[in-house]
């Protein structure tokens, strides 16, 4: 992804192609992108350490939603609940750590 527009379009296309309640998912994406816009608009040297973990959190939510959307066992509301619960550990698991393992000191594991 080289632009904000491409990033957003990617996730909207994924939910549009899923056999799901796209209104609920579109509203969820809109909320995440609105917050992402707010955060990126405030990034400065002084605020970077405060803002960046939340930016990572939004990226984890979007990516986790995109991965889970294909599982038909969950309703749309359940998917969003799972995403909102599990996004903080997404990168940890993606990097091969289990939830009990202590991670290396990295920004990627400091998700809010």
Would you kindly provide a brief summary of this structure?
Helix 1 packs antiparallel against helix 2.
**Which segments are poorly predicted (pLDDT under 50) over 5 or more consecutive residues?**
none
Structural class: mainly alpha
Please report the total strand number as a whole number.
0
Q: Could you tell me the mean pLDDT?
A: 91
Output the helix-strand order. HHHHH
Tell me the distance between the termini. 22 Å
Instruction: Name the shape in a single word.
Output: globular
Task: Quickly count the helices.
Answer: 5
Helix content: 55-70%
Rg, Cα atoms, Å: 15 Å
Report strand %.
under 5%
Task: Describe the sheet with the most strands.
Answer: none
Describe the protein's architecture and organization.
The protein is mainly α. It has five helices and no strands. The chain has helices spanning 4-17, 22-40, 48-68, 76-86, 90-94. Helix 1 (4-17) runs antiparallel to helix 2 (22-40). The radius of gyration is 15 Å and the shape is globular. The two termini are 22 Å apart. The mean pLDDT is 91.
Would you spell out the secondary-structure blueprint of this structure?
Blueprint: H1 4-17, H2 22-40, H3 48-68, H4 76-86, H5 90-94
Throw out a few tags for this protein.
5 helices; 62% helix
């Amino acid at each position: 992804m080289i632009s904000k527009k491409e990033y957003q379009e990617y996730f909207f296309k994924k939910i549009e192609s899923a056999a799901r309640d796209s209104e609920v998912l579109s509203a969820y994406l809109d909320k995440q992108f609105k917050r992402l816009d707010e955060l990126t608009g405030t990034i400065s040297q002084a605020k970077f350490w405060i803002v960046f973990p939340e930016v990572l959190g939004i990226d984890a939510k979007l990516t986790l939603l995109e991965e889970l959307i294909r599982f038909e066992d969950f309703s749309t509301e359940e998917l969003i609940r799972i995403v909102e619960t599990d996004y903080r550990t997404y990168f940890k698991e993606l990097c091969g750590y289990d939830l009990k393992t202590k991670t290396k000191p990295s920004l990627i594991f400091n998700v809010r």
